[in-house]
Design goal:
single chain; eight-stranded parallel beta barrel; two-stranded antiparallel ribbon; binds ligand LIB3CWND; binds magnesium ion
Length: about 290
Amino acid sequence: MTAIRPRRSVLYMPGSNARALEKARTLPCDALILDLEDAVAPDVKEAAREAVCAAVRAGGYAPREVVIRVNGLDTPWGEADLAAAAGAAPDAILIPKVSHPDTLVSLGARLRRLGAPERTRVWAMIETPLAILRAEAIASAAHDVDTRLSCLVMGTNDLAKETRARFVPGRAPMLPWLATAILAARAYGLDILDGVYNALSDERSFRAECEAGRDLGFDGKTLIHPNQVAAANETFAPAPDEVEHGRAIIAAFEKPENAAKGAISLDGRMVERLHAEMARRTVALADAIAARG
Ligand SMILES: CC(C)(COP(=O)(O)OP(=O)(O)OC[C@H]1O[C@@H](n2cnc3c(N)ncnc32)[C@H](O)[C@@H]1OP(=O)(O)O)[C@@H](O)C(=O)NCCC(=O)NCCSC(=O)C[C@H](O)C(=O)O
Ligand SMILES: [Mg+2]
């Protein structure tokens, strides 16, 4: 199994907000998205680019992953953002409004030419109607190693804008799109993150949306405020009883008497080797979270 990176809580912050860039070094989130796109007004795009790249170069964010969201590559700022972000060498560069796999083709080679180290990955926002309709084709870009694609990120605000779907409790209008994107991500071995929840002070409904996202299969949730980090960390971490049960499944299949068995009975339930595989992932994720301290 490849090493698991917890991505329970992935916090956006405007690249133009110096206080947020500083505060991020102390927040208990798994990853940060330093935004140059929609959270930054046109007049301050260049200043935000400089501030974000300087902050990434200065460091101090580990163990959090650091991601720079550039402006769309077809906007007046996109190419300069990409060049500057590549030079700053974040963990990933997030491309907004990807509607076609062609946007990602050869991105790896371009990043290499721009000086980005191999470890700098590409994340893609799924936030347009065309992205949902082409989710499988976009995710399949991960098969072309030169795209460096490793994670999809739902952009539910843009999806609401483009489709006129409403945000309602339970998100019924969006569920088919969320599920489609999750299937596409999993089919090509990608991580996938749920969209943001805009009502900053509604902790109860935020937690309910985290739980629903986790149950759908998301790896974590994108966030807009530090007060959302704790609930996301809790919800997307395996529960202690899940980890304990996972360890019991692994141990049961390691017993000599079960060596030749594909299915066994454990605590009154049928357990197959696929459950042992799932359990190994759960335990590895719990261990990776514990290692963060
Ligand atoms: C929403 C906010 C504008 C609210 O800001 P503010 O009123 O300043 O909040 P607080 O006074 O409660 O802040 C308390 C302290 O926390 C710091 N803070 C606030 N937000 C962040 C943050 N995101 N990251 C880091 N630190 C943050 C404040 O500086 C205060 O610190 P201190 O001075 O020490 O007390 C604001 O939260 C905000 O800007 N949020 C992020 C907005 C954003 O990035 N939006 C773009 C992404 S959402 C999106 O569009 C996804 C996708 O594309 C889609 O289409 O769906
Ligand atoms: Mg968006």
